[in-house]
Specification:
The chain is an alpha/beta fold. The protein has nine helices and nine strands. A hairpin with a 2-residue loop joins β5 and β6. The structure holds guanosine-5'-monophosphate.
Length: about 210
Amino acid sequence: RENIMDRKGLLLVLSGPSGAGKGTICESFMQKCHDVKLSVSTTTREKRNGEVEGVSYNFITKEEFEHSLKNNGFLEHVHVFGNYYGTPRSVVEENINKGIDVLLEIEIVGAMQIKEKYPDAVLIFVLPPTICELEKRIVKRGTETNDQIKDRLSRALSEIRKINEYSYFIVNNDVEEAVSYMESIIKAEKSSVKRYSEQIINLYQEEK
Ligand code: 5GP
């Protein structure tokens, strides 16, 4: 099994509305699963309290972002909530090619760009238990104005309507449970005949 999967890392995309708890799930997941690499996104958004440069995000200016964009530096990017967000191309590609699984925590438009470029990517949608709960979480975070909260909520609803584009969903009732679902999804993908059939046949034929 090791041999079969050694070829290319999985590209895991954890997506879903802002405030659904993707970040918390990612953090817990990363503490548990050390063999997956989390992609650090680049953004032009202001750093929030407690965020760390190079860990939470690479924080850069709009000009720097646009420069990198022109040089094909991003695997996907979006302009949402008045700011740019993007996934640095080289880190992801290098790891995948080395056989290391990479996890992206991005919103839906970016996820669709990934799906288009990497049809093999595993798209997972994180749902809040309810919309009311989602609103509570965004309000509690205290970093957005009323208008920004409204914007994030209406965006959340239109994102949920596109859930058909995803392969899996996780309802974020409880972080531990959500992480356990993520692990199961990864295991399922690593047992996918569709994904590995060619490698399996080649490997066992070589052995003969
Ligand atoms: P926040 O400002 O709350 O950190 O992020 C806003 C939204 O942007 C979240 O839904 C987050 O997942 C998403 N996001 C963060 N980094 C990226 C990225 O590199 N690409 C895309 N498409 N979305 C991102």
